[in-house]
Structure formats: C-alpha cells, structure tokens
Amino acid sequence: MSKGYIRFSWITLILIFAVTLAGSIVRTTGSGMGCPDWPKCFDQIIPPTSADQLPQGYKDTYAAYRHKKIVKFTNLLERIGFDETAEKLRHDKSLLIEQDFNAAKTWTEYGNRLVGFLAGNAVLILLIWTIIRYRSNRLLLGLTFLNLIFMGFEAWLGSIVVATNLVPWTITLHMFFALVIIGVQIKIIRIAKNRSFQLNLSPGFKWLFYFSIGLTFVQIILGAQVRQEIDFMVMDGVDRGEWIAGMEGDFLFHRSFSWLLLIVNLGLLWWNSKQNYGIQTLKWIVGLVVVLFLTGVLFSYAGMPAIIQPIHLFVAALMLGIQFYALDYFKYRSSSAIR
C-alpha cells in the first residue's frame, strides 16, 4: 500500500480515538442533551450561544420530536424481543422533559459531533480510496466497508441516545461499538502496512496475550457499567462526592478486576524479558495499566474528579488499541524484534 494510504489510515484512527475522548468529555460534563435534536443543533448548523437565539416553544417542539423517535425505537426493540425494555421506555415520562438551555453544554456536544463528522468522512474517504486503488484486496475492501457501516450505525445510535434522553444502557452500547470500530480500523492499518515480524513465540505466551486482550475488553465494559450506575445516581440527584459510597458491586468488582489485569500484563512483560522476545509494545501496555491504576485511585479517594474520567476512559481505549495492533506480530516466526 502507498505511504499516503497508510498515513491517512492512521489519521482516521486518531479521529476515531478523538471521538471516544470527546464523547467521554460530553458524558462527564453532562452535555449529552446540549443539543436536543440530531444531526443539527436546535435545528441550526451552527448552534446558538444564548437563549434569545432559540426558536419559540423549543421545549415542546423537541419533546414531540423525541417522542416520535422513542416510538420508533421501542417498536424496533419489540421486534427483536426486548418487550420489557420497550415498555419501560414507552411509559417513562421523564424522557420527554427538555433541559434548560446551557451554552457551554451545547457547544461541548456540538464539538463532539464535529469530531464525529470528521471521523465518519475519513472512514468514507478510506473506503473510496480502497475501491479505487486496492479493491483486489477483498479483506481490506470488506473491512473498510464494514467500518463505514459501523460508523453509520454508531451515528444512528447516537441519535437514539439523544432521543431517549441519555438512557444509561444506550450509552454503554454506544461505547461498545466505538471499541469495535477502533479494532476494525487497527486491523485495516495492519493489513495496509503488511510488515512481517518474525518471532518464535511460544503458544503459552500467545494465549496469555489473547487472554490479556479479553481482560482489557471486559474491564472497559465493566467500567461502562460503573458509569451507568453513576448515571442513575445523577438522575436521582446524588452529589458527586457521594457517588463512591452509593456504588454497588460493579464498582468493587471493576476495581478488584484491575489487579488481575495488572498481574497478567506484568507476567507477559517478565516472560518477554526472560525469553528475549524484544516486544517493546508490552512496556507501553504495562505503563498504561499503571496510569489506569493511578486514575482509579483518584476515583476512589479523591471524590471522582470530573477531569479524570475522560482520561481514564481514553487510556483504556488506547491500551486496547495497542493490544489489537500487536496481534499481527504473532503470525510470523523467526528472529527479528518488535519495535
């Protein structure tokens, strides 16, 4: 593949990570409903900066708009067997309560959408580039097409998140598909670079590394569940300083599970050193685990400072991305080291 194609693939990945970070900032600052409609913001391409720029009766207008979205979504949930969830959403009157205008939250959410727009268009351009130049590579063509579909689904799911007034489980699902998109994009980069690292790795080392990837993914989903608990407390008006005390099993399990993640990756780092594999990537991974630990300590003992939350999530997603990127190294055999 050309250097330009590989470089643009990396730019696309960076934009996807930027969307993940921006989404976390939106969630942390409570700005998800800063724009009550989608894809525009208060029916404007450039959102308002003050309340006097809002359309008259906007709360009733967007409540009605949201009601239509909820009806369509609940009908879909019923068709795929989630009758109980659909019924709860359909009768939850709190979903139709429109928030007061807040310029800071509006522009925070708008910034998130701009980054998402750039990432989506980058994925589209990459697909077109692949069709024109590299369509003979069926796997690459399929993955670039698949990622565009996933980005479209993620955008639709984002509209549902807004329509359901940030129902917590929809936000967790939104995060899950963001991780899938990151994984697919990294696979695209690995195919495009087509490098043949030749290492004679033992099967046990490989399986432990695969296990570490599974642990990271589970840990991120557990973190999303913890955040979901927080969302419910926010809805109930619980102060930030009382969030930790109000946590149930998910937070404690998430915190304890991090020790297993650290032990496994330290084991991989020790094994790598002992066998002289030379996989420098493992040092980065262990370093990121340490950062997750430090931010986790701040969550537990510093009252969950808002600025730490997006950092914690971004580092976790970055770590998973690095692990995905390292997978290709395990396909080859011989003696050169990974750098």
Description:
The chain is mainly α and 339 residues long. The chain has two domains: 1-194, no CATH class; 196-339, no CATH class. 72% of the residues lie in helices and 0% in strands. It contains eleven helices and no strands. The protein has helices spanning 3-29, 58-79, 83-90, 103-133, 138-163, 168-193, 203-235, 243-246, 249-274, 281-301, 308-326. α7 (203-235) packs antiparallel against α9. 29% of the residues are buried. Residues 333-339 have low confidence and may be disordered.
What portion of residues belong to β-strands?
Answer: under 5%
Terminus-to-terminus distance = 21 Å
Average pLDDT value?
A: 82
The gyration radius over C-alpha positions equals 22 Å
List keywords for this structure.
single chain, 339 residues, mainly alpha, 2 domains, disordered C terminus
